[in-house]
Amino acid sequence: MAVLNCHLCGLTAEPPVMAEGHAFCCHGCRELWRLLGEERIAELRTGPGLNWAALRAAPAEPVLEAGAGETATATLALDGLWCSSCAVLVEQVLRRTPGVLGGHVDYTASRAEVVFDAERTSAPDLQAVVQRLGYGARPDQGAAGDADLLRRFSRSLVVGLLVMMLSVPVWSGLLPTLDPPLRDALAYGLWLLTTPVVFWGGWPFLRGAWVSLRHGVPTMDLLVAVGTLAAYAYSAIAVLTGGRYLYFDIAGMLVSFLLLGRAIDSAARARAASVSRLLLELAAKEAVVIRAGGELAVPADQVLAGEAVVLRPGQKAPVDGEVLSGRSAVDEASLTGEGLPVDKVPGDLVYAGTLNQNGRLVLRALRVGGDTVLSQTARAVAAAQASKGAWQQLADRVVRVFVPVILLISVATWAGGHWLFHLGMAPALLRAIAALVIACPCALSVATPLAVAAAAQRAGRMGVLLRRGDAVERAAGVDTVLLDKTGTVTTGVATLAEWLPADDGLLALAAAVELGSEHPLGQAVVRAAEGRRLRVVPAEDFMALPGTGVSGRVQGRAVSVGVLPPSIEAPAALAAPAAEWEQEGRTVLWLLVDGAVAAALAVSDRPRPDAATAIADLRRAGVEVAMLTGDAAGTARAVASLIGIERVLARQSPLDKAAEVARLQAAGRRVAFVGDGINDAPALVQADLGIAMAQGSDIAVEAGQLTLARPALRSVPQVLGLARQTVAVIRGNLLWALLYNVIAVPAAILGYAQPLFSAGAMVVSSAFVLGNSLRLVGGSARRSVAAGLWVAGAAAVLVALAWWSL
């Protein structure tokens, strides 16, 4: 049978939801396709899949007219979001609802935030809009979802234990010997007590089962509902027909145990999903800007790029900006994980969410609103949780096949046990119910997303931003790391050491074309000219040639600065000192005026303080390290020798770097490339893992799967180690979940696991996966002890129930 992919999002459609000759993975993708239309979706596609960022930025219609009434905000907790298309569908429909000003649906947290005109619509109306789409929606009250599960669990447990105690005559076989009035009172009493447990306590499972049936997508809720209702219905029929076997106690305790497992699962998901929300809470809500010569307080999201922002002591930065004036120490621990404050002087960068400690700073806003590193971090954490790597896609495929297979196995167990092996109706039914319950794929379904979410949180504390959902899996397999030099291995804070001839006029010409460049070497030339108070006229027809240099026209003369073209030979008076500069580790830039060599410039750029340590850590981990740079061989080797890199490729163009990555990949290597400039973008894209420096060019940052939020190379070996640990945890989780089912399901079929035992085993299995995943986050001993007590408590209850049921 051919495997179909979703026409919209590209995920595997198993089973497919068909519409007009197209296959979709869920009804959310199907309805979104119908809502937007093929032409609109085609416009939003950029390569494989749908450009979700572009879709979210699409204007919502109708737009609220002027003179609107009082605005209000509704937060809805959503149920039944099958994939990211479901979230986009709900968001688009809500934003197109009359009276809605705007809205956002967080797929990871299953939550919708909607701003609306209170005179035209209301929160219940919006809730009804979502429900008409086939999803569950209710007012969200923070931890209300967990509180509701715990409330259902606690009350169901009390009633369930009471039912178990009253069921002693049933277990002992004394029920048929009781006087008819007493027998009927006991049977109907057990029925009466169990009914609210099954239909109120178990409502989350029953609702989920109905949604899965309605949309043709079987889920683990369906297994739970079938098992619980089978025990309940059989017992109810036995009461009405005078049967001797009643299993109300099993139905009630099944619900209690499964609610416990769901509460643990929900709490873990909430903890993981809260990371991005907590990151955004670090951002300042208000900013002080300088407008019309005075200071004005405005909401942080109204600051414009280029504006001057005042940052007083004790305030959080509302934007990413460059210090224009002032000196201070800034606490960047919330973003980079650095414990010590960082001194900031004019020219330094300050990031949104970091805390100014002791001085007044004036910043020039560079990145505002959703473009700040903090906002990108929050989005990336959410994306890492929502998107699916290879391991998660494998688990999803297994679960989609697993659920219907278990349903068939359960039916076969009941039918085969009763008719082929001549078991009684009741024992055969118990085995079928046990198989349904013990096989619940809770552990399998959360094995990968919880581990990835925990890794994203841990990486954030390292100062590493995950920009792609599969970044962790990519990083785990890396065995070769290629490093750019300028701005990556070196600090990127270059200084112009000297130039020959020492003519200020020539320096001004070089600075004129470098004004348009963002490369650290070019900026060093500009700063040198500014320091000498030279008159610099911006070049016309500016052009940046990645890996080569820059060019333009200055007062009618063709001027270029960068690598010396092979066709031009340097004058002897400049060639000798240039060779000496390269041996000293300086970078040589050549100034050409009207095609002739006019000057040589020596730029110094120190290696990062942690570069040597990072290289040593990578080597200890068995990773091969090399440096690729567009600089001359002498300069490159001098820098490499200082930090312990033996293999150096110099004079590399952007395409040369990408070609070297491809060559290593063809040889079977898994390559990570670390860079920061436009000239690094081809290699970042070509590499198995692209790691971009956050202070680098926007193109480089966008090209990478990982971004280093702090300029520290030691984060590279740290995140590679974390990735290997994460994949090991994922493999362990999946192996545990699969082995558990391979052993547990046959045990249930053969009658070695009663339904209550099965429910307890399922809880312990899920608790193991949750605890194993959350190890990646790290934490205090108190939390570790608490997690151990949870598992120990579940195991103790399991043993007690198993003994009691014998």
How would you explain this protein's 3D organization?
By secondary structure, the protein is an alpha+beta fold. The chain is 52% helix and 17% strand.
Entry keywords:
806 residues, alpha+beta, seven-stranded mixed β-sheet, six-stranded antiparallel β-sheet, 28 strands
Provide the fold topology.
Blueprint: E1 17-19, E2 22-24, H1 27-36, H2 38-44, H3 52-57, E3 71-79, H4 84-95, E4 100-106, E5 111-117, H5 123-132, E6 136-139, H6 144-166, H7 168-171, H8 180-201, H9 203-214, H10 220-241, H11 248-281, E7 286-291, E8 294-299, E9 308-311, E10 320-325, E11 328-331, H12 333-336, E12 342-344, E13 349-350, E14 355-356, E15 361-367, H13 373-386, H14 390-420, H15 425-438, H16 442-462, E16 464-466, H17 471-476, E17 480-483, H18 485-489, E18 495-500, H19 504-514, H20 520-531, E19 540-545, E20 549-554, E21 557-562, H21 572-583, E22 587-593, E23 596-604, H22 611-620, E24 624-628, H23 633-643, E25 647-649, H24 654-666, E26 671-675, H25 681-686, E27 689-693, H26 698-703, E28 706-708, H27 715-749, H28 755-774, H29 781-805
Parallel strand pairs: 17-24, 17-26, 24-25, 26-27, 27-28
Antiparallel strand pairs: 1-2, 3-5, 3-6, 4-5, 7-8, 7-9, 9-15, 10-13, 10-15, 11-12, 11-14, 16-28, 18-23, 19-20, 20-21, 21-22, 22-23
Helix pairs in contact: 1-4, 6-8, 6-11, 8-10, 8-11, 9-10, 10-11, 10-15, 11-13, 11-16, 11-28, 13-16, 14-15, 14-16, 14-27, 15-27, 15-28, 16-27, 16-28, 19-20, 21-23, 27-28, 28-29
